[in-house]
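User: For my dataset I need records formatted as: sequence, then structure tokens, nothing else. Please produce one.
Assistant:
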Amino acid sequence: MNLEKVLPLLPRLLHESTEPHALEGFLSSLATALELPAIGIRWPLDRAASVVIAVGPCAANFDPIAIDSADIAKTLLSESLCFLANPVPRLFARVALSGRPSAMLWFEFPPKQSTTTAHQSVIQTIAQMLPASPLFTKRIGISIDQARLLQRIADSSIVCGRMAHDFDNILTGILGFTDLSLPMLPVGSQPHQYLTEVSKGGQRGIVFTQQLHQLSRSGQTKPMPSSVGTVLAMEETRLKPTFKPELRLQLDVSAELPPVAIEGGPLQNVISHILDNAVEASPQGGVIRVTGSVIELDQAGVESFLGNPMPGSFVELRIQDQGTGIKPEIRPRLFVEPFYTTKVRHRGLGLAIIFRILHAHKGGIQIESNGTPGSGTLVRLILPLAPKKSAAIR
């Protein structure tokens, strides 16, 4: 291997490019420098691939099934590198993405050639650089700096808490005098109609200040155990009156799921924000499916979730809608811009509240969507189990 040809290529990973296939161009140059038949990327690593890239002199003969192996994925989720000699020599590396499923980087070697320490060093270096590379994030999506995100939300929550208190005082006066005045006016009269609109505006303001309070308090740890099934039943009752024609909420959650280490109130805040978005995104006649199960995650598994989960046992909730999905140009801004929203009457507080609650309770969230109409959005929540000696309470 001629490292003198490889090292000058690495800075290209950190440069912006408007070329639609800039990532393929970099990998092709790398294959030439290393004199390898093919180099490629697969994402996600452990499920049906959305992105498969193969470049190099022999890439035209590449069969994607050759790297679609559960054994390879399982190995990479526990180790950083994996080498397989058959049917052709390939070296695989896991690309860890914060808050997202991992990707796979692979090098193909000439027949009967094995890898060297230099090869392993190069592939590990590139795998570590890829999550921060504009070339990579343009194709796969951004890897989120959770420490920075958490600090930005924490700073904002202090301001939000103070603003919410002041707005509460103002709105209490507005709504109080409106409620006293309405009975004094003839129903249907113009002044009555005007005051009714004032009252509606005040009620919308109350909903907004409640969200500000939720964000302000979301960093508090309340690990008292609660039942996921109980919270979902309450949410189903709350949401049914708002459903579009023939929209269904399908709950496939066992009553035997163990309690989770998040108090009922914060847990309901998390689930309600996600379900509200699912209802709003769903078409008439659509189905919102919620499934729950107990899963075990190792270090590589928890790294794919935003939040603060530690390896161990979790209740996983999957909330899948059949809406239009998240557009590719919008997805990079989720979480990265804590208060980003595309909805006129919203302020982008929901995801910030969800992230901060889950982070405080050592849970996590993952959002998957390819932006294809009808494919919808899948939200995965992992909630840490409550200690077995505790009983579920609300």
